[in-house]
Design brief:
Layout (H helix, E strand, L loop, with lengths): L4 E5 L3 H9 L4 E5 L14 H13 L3 E6 L11 H10 L4 E4 L4 H8 L4 E4 L8 H10 L3 E3 L6 H10 L4 E7 L11 H6 L19 E2 L2 E2 L13 E3 L4 H6 L4 E4 L6 H21 L4 H12 L6 E2 L25 E9 L4 E6 L3 E2 L3 E6 L2 E7 L3 E2 L8 E2 L5 E5 L9 E4 L4
Parallel strand pairs: 1-2, 1-11, 2-3, 3-4, 4-5, 5-6, 6-7, 7-11, 10-12
Antiparallel strand pairs: 7-10, 8-9, 13-14, 13-21, 14-20, 15-19, 16-17, 16-21, 18-20
Helix pairs in contact: 1-2, 1-9, 9-10
Length: 402
C-alpha cells in the first residue's frame, strides 16, 4: 500500500515552491484559462514548465485545473493546451467535463484525468461509472460524511481524493449562481465573487426584519478534517486535498507542514493521541482567518457549521518576514519584511527544517547596515541577529498574545 498523498494548492509559482518545500507530495495549480480561480495569479505556460521541473527535483507531482463548466466557445485552443501540458511533464489535469477525457487520451496519453469535486461524486456507483468513462482519480464532493467515504472507498476501483482543509461553498459542490446573479461573475467559469461571504440585512419586502446592527452572512465555516486523517489513511483514500489557491505563502507553509507532520506521525506510530491531535489543531489555528469545523464529515450540517453573524476568528499569529538566507559565521539572517514588527517583539521561526523556535528581536540592520528599530516597509530586505540557525524558506511570525 502506497503512502497517502498530501495535495496542496498554489496560486503562483512562488507559493507552489513553498508548498513542495514544506512537504506537499503534489500541488494543484491553474493556468490562465479553463480554471475556476480566474482571479488567482495563475500560471503562464513558462511558469508551468518551470514548476514541473522544480517539482521533479523533490519527487513531487503537479496537477493543473481545467475545471470550468465548458461552453462551446471554451473549447477553442484546448487541444493545444492539453498537448503542451503533457509535453512539459504535468502529471494530471483536474476536469469537470467528461468530454475532455478523450482529448487528453489523444493529446497527452501519459497524463491522468482527475474528476473535479464539481461533479458531486458522492456514491460508489458514480465513482464506478466515472472509472468506466476513463477517470484515473475521483475527487469526492465535500458533502460526503466520513462514514460514506469509508463505504465508497471499500467499493472503489479507482483512487479517491478527499478535501481535508480550507474554504467550503455555501452551495452544493460549488455549483453557485449567486455570484453570477449579483455581480455578473460566473462562479462556474472562474469568476466567483464569494457573494455568500458578504454581510447582509434581512428584509421582508421593504421592511427590515433583522437587527440593523447585526449583519448576516450565508457563509459556512472553513473545513478542518484533522480528527479524521487517521480514518482516511486506514480506508485507503489516495489523496488528502487542501483548499486555498487564493491563500498566502504563510497559510500554505503552515497548513502543509502541519498535515505533513501529522500524516508522518500516524504512519510512524499507528495513531495519534488526543494530546498530539490537540497540538496539531493548535498549529492549524495559527493559519486560520475564519472559524473552522469538520463540515459534512461528522454527518449532515446544521446551523452550528455556518457563520451567519459570527465574525471571523482573525489570524492568531502575524506573519512578519520571509527568510532568504543565513550567515552561520555571524548568525545573521537575511529577511524580507511582510508585516510590521519592531525590536523587542517576540517572534517564532518555522520552516521545513525549523520547528517553532521563539526569540526576542534584538538587532536589525538595513542594507547599509544602519540600525533599524521598526520594520514597517513591506518587501524591504533587512538583516537580523539570530540566537539559532534558520534556513532559506523559513518564515517568522509574531507569537500569539491570545
Amino acid at each position: 500500500m502506497s503512502k497517502i498523498e498530501l495535495l496542496a494548492p498554489a496560486k503562483d509559482l512562488n507559493k507552489a515552491r513553498i508548498a513542495i518545500m514544506y512537504g506537499a507530495d503534489a500541488v494543484y495549480v491553474g493556468g490562465k484559462f479553463y480554471s475556476l480561480r480566474s482571479r488567482a495569479s495563475n500560471f503562464e505556460l513558462e511558469d508551468l514548465k518551470e514548476l514541473s521541473e522544480f517539482a521533479k527535483q523533490y519527487g513531487a507531482k503537479v496537477y493543473v485545473t481545467v475545471n470550468i463548466v465548458f461552453h462551446d466557445d471554451d473549447y477553442y485552443g484546448i487541444r493545444e493546451y492539453i498537448r503542451y501540458l503533457g509535453k512539459i511533464g504535468i502529471d494530471a489535469v483536474i476536469i469537470s467535463s467528461l468530454a475532455l477525457i478523450p482529448i487528453v487520451r489523444q493529446e497527452a496519453p501519459n497524463m491522468e484525468c482527475h474528476i473535479s469535486t464539481q461533479l458531486s461524486s458522492l456514491n460508489s456507483s458514480a465513482v464506478r461509472t466515472l472509472k468506466d468513462f476513463g477517470a484515473d482519480r475521483v475527487v469526492l464532493g465535500r458533502e460526503a460524511s466520513m462514514d460514506q467515504i469509508e463505504q465508497i472507498s471499500r467499493k472503489a476501483s479507482v483512487p479517491l481524493e478527499v478535501f481535508i482543509h480550507g474554504g467550503m461553498c455555501s452551495n452544493y459542490s460549488g455549483r453557485c449562481t449567486l455570484s453570477n446573479r449579483m455581480t455578473l461573475r460566473d462562479a462556474n467559469r472562474g469568476g466567483c465573487a464569494h457573494s455568500c461571504r458578504w454581510k447582509y440585512r434581512l428584509y421582508d419586502g421593504e421592511e427590515l426584519i433583522s437587527d440593523p446592527d447585526c449583519l448576516l452572512s450565508m457563509s459556512s465555516k472553513d473545513l478542518r478534517a484533522s480528527a479524521y486523517i487517521e480514518r482516511m489513511i486506514n480506508c485507503n483514500v489516495a489523496s488528502l486535498k487542501i483548499e486555498g489557491r487564493m491563500k498566502s505563502e504563510y497559510y500554505i507553509g503552515q497548513v502543509v507542514k502541519t498535515y505533513r507532520k501529522m500524516i508522518d506521525e500516524i504512519y510512524e506510530k499507528g495513531s495519534l493521541s488526543e494530546e498530539r491531535l490537540a497540538y496539531y489543531d493548535n498549529e492549524l489555528t495559527k493559519a486560520e482567518n475564519r472559524p473552522s469545523d469538520d463540515g459534512f464529515l461528522s454527518g449532515d450540517c446544521d446551523n452550528s457549521k455556518h457563520l451567519y453573524g459570527v465574525n471571523g476568528a482573525g489570524v492568531t499569529h502575524d506573519y512578519v518576514a520571509f527568510v532568504h538566507g543565513f550567515d552561520s559565521k555571524r548568525n545573521i539572517a537575511q529577511i524580507e519584511v511582510k508585516n510590521i514588527f519592531a525590536r523587542g517583539d517576540k517572534l517564532e521561526a518555522f520552516g521545513p527544517r525549523t520547528d517553532n523556535l521563539s526569540f526576542d528581536v534584538e538587532f536589525m540592520f538595513d542594507e547599509n547596515w544602519d540600525s533599524v528599530d521598526l520594520a514597517n516597509k513591506p518587501t524591504q530586505i533587512l538583516y537580523m541577529r539570530m540566537p539559532f540557525a534558520v534556513h532559506r524558506g523559513d518564515m517568522l511570525r509574531k507569537v500569539s498574545r491570545r
